[in-house]
Amino acid sequence: MGWFVGALAVMVASQLVRLFQTEPLPWLVCDYVGRAGALAILLATPQAREVAFRKSQRTLAGWKLPFCIIGLVIFDRLGWYVCNLLMPSRSFGVYPAPQGWLRLVDMTLGLALVAFSEELMFRRCARYVLRAKLGDGTPMVIATSLLFASYHWTFGTRTIVSAGLFGAAAMIFYVQSSVIWPVIFAHYLADVLAFD
């Protein structure tokens, strides 16, 4: 469990440093360094590497995966829309939108890093860490989605709630399918739509 806390601490530390960045390049560097640092901890620790990067057998029919991916993306956008309608906007941090080549890098490699690092941490690793205490049902889904939601604290209540909803749906999809790549792909698509 120490490896999970360490990797998560690196990601949270980068968020704190990011709060003081007002220009796109330093903000993105802080974000990417925190995510890459967390992934490095997962790679460097044998138990973490076994959990985070193992190959899994799919337990959901292959033809269902595209429908689940599209459903998860639609669910995320609807959740965000409803949260925007019902909740006040209060944010602690600002995403300084990059332009030009930096935007292209962020929309491709950057959002891929976001989806990959967050899904490994908050779906695969968090499930592994919490399953011994909470089982593999509703309490684990709730706990991991609350953890995922609280990681998005810098962007305020709307984002916290919509991230929690996405986190719960993503965990259910992950538990049903037993493979992480479709959830990573859905997360990436949802982020592309959110930032476009």
Walkthrough of the structure:
The chain is mainly alpha-helical. About 80% of the residues lie in helices and about 0% in strands. It has eight helices and no strands. About 35% of the residues are buried.
Distance between the termini: 36 Å
Structural class call reads mainly alpha
Number of strands: 0
Shape: globular
Which structural traits does this protein have?
single chain; mainly alpha; globular
Secondary-structure blueprint:
Layout: H1 2-18, H2 24-44, H3 46-52, H4 65-86, H5 100-134, H6 138-151, H7 156-177, H8 181-195
Helix pairs in contact: 1-2, 2-3, 2-5, 4-7, 4-8, 5-6, 5-7, 5-8, 6-7
Quick recap:
This protein is mainly alpha-helical and 196 residues long. It is built from 8 helices and no strands.
